[in-house]
Here is the input.
Amino acid sequence: MKKQEGIDPKQFESELKKKFVRVQPDESFVKNLRQILVEKKFISLETSKKYLFTISLIFFGIFSGYFLIWILKKIFYPKRNGNKESNSEMPQE
Here is the structure.
């Protein structure tokens, strides 16, 4: 029989124990976390600050709508400067 190549599980476990040091958590942190997660009787949702995006989107829509109406008025209802000036310059009798 050939010896299987690989890592010995006990040796592997001892190497992992050497590399990873066990850390004791802070007791106050654990108590605070327990209060937040377990003892809280109501659920609160975090609110995002999307109101700036919504407001800017509304203002952009209003501005672009006004600009579009202004352009369409310039195209379809141009000012007739000749008629207004000729009426105002006519001498009165």
Summary: The two ends are 131 Å apart (CA to CA). Residues 51-79 form one domain. Residues 51-76 form the longest helix (26 residues). The chain has a mean pLDDT of 79.
